[in-house]
Amino acid sequence: KGSGLAGEDPFKNKDHFQFTNLFLCGLLSKAKQKLLRHLVPTAALRRKRKALWAHLFASLRAHLQNLPRVKSGTFNQVQAMPTFVWMLRCIYETQS
After folding, report:
1. Residue 2 belongs to some domain of the structure
2. Rounded CA gap, 67 and 48, in Å?
3. Digits of tens for pLDDT over the chain (96 positions)?
4. Which of 6, 32, 54, 56 has the most CB within a 10 Å radius?
5. How much is the pLDDT for 13?
6. SS3 letters for 58-87?
């Protein structure tokens, strides 16, 4: 039967998307700008980086608004979900 993937949804497991996105965030970081300067015009790279930041922060904002909050004394507590931790990694990778 080959690889056994017939009939399965290849996008059910999103781990490969997360690693690809993390790689792209690192690639579009300012630290890697010299590497891409020879391949992509600076203006295009700037637009892509701006679009990436807009997407990351919109995703982060939406995620934070949907987190369940628990009142603990005078503070609200939230639990960091794996998706949130992954988004923080992408933001960190883009900044570094």
Report:
1. no
2. 29
3. 445 555 665 556 667 777 777 777 777 777 777 888 888 888 988 898 888 888 888 888 888 787 777 777 887 777 777 777 777 777 777 775
4. 56
5. 63
6. HHHHHHHHCCCEEEECCEEEECCCHHHHHH
Residue 41 belongs to domain spanning? 16-95
Look up residue 84 and give its two tokens: 């949130």
67 occurs within a structural domain: yes
Spell out a b/e string for 8-32, using b for 16 or more CB atoms within 10 Å of the CB, else e.
eeeeeeeeeebeebbeebbbbbeee
pTM beyond cutoff 0.70: no
Give the CA count within 13 Å in the CB-facing half-sphere of 54: 6
For residue 6, being part of any structural domain is answered with no
Question: Considering its fold, how many domains does the chain have in total?
Answer: 1
In a domain, 11, yes or no: no
